[in-house]
Design brief:
about 290 residues, about 20% strand, binds adenosine-5'-triphosphate, ATP binding, ABC_transporter-like_ATP-bd, transport, P-loop_NTPase, ABC_transporter-like_CS
Length: about 290
């Protein structure tokens, strides 16, 4: 058995030369979900969902609580395997990768979790350095520079490095989480409800940082959010999912896929109600135990 280190996964699609006669190609998708179905012990959460995310796009995924948005993010990085359909990253079918290759793919993602998910017992410095050390890519002097730079980019002073997460505000913890997610220069950033629990000003700071990341680092962004201000500020495109229990079997689960400015006056009242935050029939449905 060979013990030689394997080269990093390359781009499968880039190996295909462009034909000079062919029309301008569609921007290449970096993340592709193709006819995904997802069930947990007979509880079906996603049905026949297809989403292609081109490089550098910022996609916001919206929809009622429980419709499967976080599951979608986990499928994209292979933390969950779909019951049906395929997930591809930069041309590679995640289902066909072994654990080494899947790890190589995950290195190309940054993930800002809902509650920032910092390690309480570690200092802020060690939290941001964690992934850099785990992957043993750099010496400590280089790690120190990267940690300083990332904390500065998210607007946190150097004095914060020695503190523990419990000493920080929610907004500061989110920014540390972002600094950590950006430490390895990811090509794709996944944000799971990045502004939940923050005041309006701090929410806007986080939205600005998402925009800044997209503009200066040219990352692809996938943002799961309930916050329509985030959608209006950062999205190039919006996908709205609907909870399966409230759909007919023949209805598509994606109610909307398009630019953010098409949401407000969309013909489907379920889309309009969601973006305007109107309860509509929901209160009576909930009181009748149908929600
Ligand atoms: N590992 C799991 N095992 C069993 N069920 C799961 C698992 N992960 C998610 N689910 C179920 O899948 C459904 C969708 O969950 P998900 O977290 O994706 O919803 P969401 O749209 O992100 O909701 P919210 O907006 O409230 O965060 C829920 O009913 C949840 O209970």
């Amino acid at each position: 058995m060979s013990t030689a280190p394997r080269p990093p996964l390359g781009s499968a699609a880039s190996a295909v030369p462009d034909s000079p006669a062919s029309p301008a190609p569609e921007p290449r998708a970096i993340v592709e979900l193709d006819r995904i179905g997802m069930e947990f012990r007979h509880h079906q959460v996603l049905r026949d969902v297809t989403i292609r995310v081109p490089k550098r796009q910022t996609l916001c995924v919206i929809g009622e609580s429980g419709c499967g948005k976080t599951v979608l993010l986990k499928l994209m990085i292979g933390l969950l395997r779909p019951t049906r359909g395929s997930v591809r990253f930069d041309g590679h079918d995640l289902n066909r990768l072994d654990s080494f290759e899947l790890n190589q793919v995950r290195l190309r993602f940054g993930f800002l979790f809902q509650m920032a998910a910092l390690f309480d017992s570690l200092s802020i410095y060690d939290n941001v350095a964690f992934g850099l050390r785990e992957h043993a890519l750099f010496d400590e002097a280089r790690i120190r520079r990267i940690v300083h730079d990332r904390l500065r980019e998210v607007g946190l002073p150097p004095g914060i490095e020695a503190k523990k997460p419990a000493e920080l505000s929610g907004g500061q913890r989110k920014r540390v989480g972002l600094a950590r997610a950006l430490a390895l220069d990811p090509e794709v950033m996944l944000y799971d409800e990045p502004t939940t629990g923050l005041d309006p000003i701090m929410s806007d700071v986080i939205n600005e940082l998402i925009l800044q990341t997209q503009r200066t680092k040219h990352t692809t962004g996938i943002v799961v959010t309930h916050d329509m201000k985030t959608v209006r500020k950062v999205a190039d495109r919006v996908v709205m999912l609907y909870p399966l229990p409230r759909l007919r079997p023949d209805e598509p689960q994606i109610l909307y896929d398009g630019p953010p400015d098409g949401l407000e006056d969309h013909p489907d009242p379920r889309v309009r109600q969601f973006v305007r935050g109107e309860a509509g029939e929901r209160l009576s449905e909930l009181t009748q135990g149908r929600g």
